[in-house]
Write a structure and sequence with these properties.
By secondary structure, the chain is an all-alpha fold. Helices cover 84% and strands 0% of the residues.
Length: 151
């Protein structure tokens, strides 16, 4: 195989692999939307339930929703970590492929961003499940106190 043919083949693999990395990022965005919708829906469900005259069941329902919300936030963090690891691996391979291409665009981009104090989106993204967990933690604590008649 000629050098030009190998370069063309590598370029095709590179384009496919970059597209696959982009798909992982898209799935991560969809996962974030899923968890935000689900967690928001749980709070809306609690609001609807609390509006009814079910004061004896409210602490139990609040406890259940608090636990479910906290578990979902924990699962969300695990999902984000998994996507981050998957993307990290993909970009390591992309950087290796770029060593054999005329211009390493992703490597150059990261070199530039690292000099500007760029705040990686994944760091910001990791704070969202923590913020979303706060109301569920408060619900959990409130329901425990209510069931123990401390409130």
């Amino acid at each position: 195989m000629s050098e030009k043919s190998e370069l063309c083949e590598l370029l095709e693999q590179y384009k496919l692999y970059v597209e696959m990395a982009d798909r992982v990022s898209s799935r991560r965005i969809q996962t974030n939307r899923f968890y935000i919708s689900l967690l928001s829906g749980l709070l809306a469900l609690l609001y609807v339930f609390a509006g009814r005259d079910t004061s004896s069941l409210l602490p139990i329902v609040t406890l259940a929703i608090g636990i479910i919300g906290l578990v979902l936030c924990g699962l969300w963090v695990v999902n984000l970590r998994s996507y981050r690891q998957l993307n990290r691996g993909k970009f390591q391979i992309i950087h290796e492929m770029e060593e054999h291409l005329p211009f390493p665009c992703y490597k150059k981009e990261w070199d530039i961003l690292s000099k500007t104090g760029y705040l990686q989106l994944t760091r910001v993204e990791n704070g969202i499940p923590v913020v979303m967990a706060l109301p569920y933690l408060l619900l959990f604590l409130y329901s425990i106190m209510s069931l123990l008649h401390l409130f």
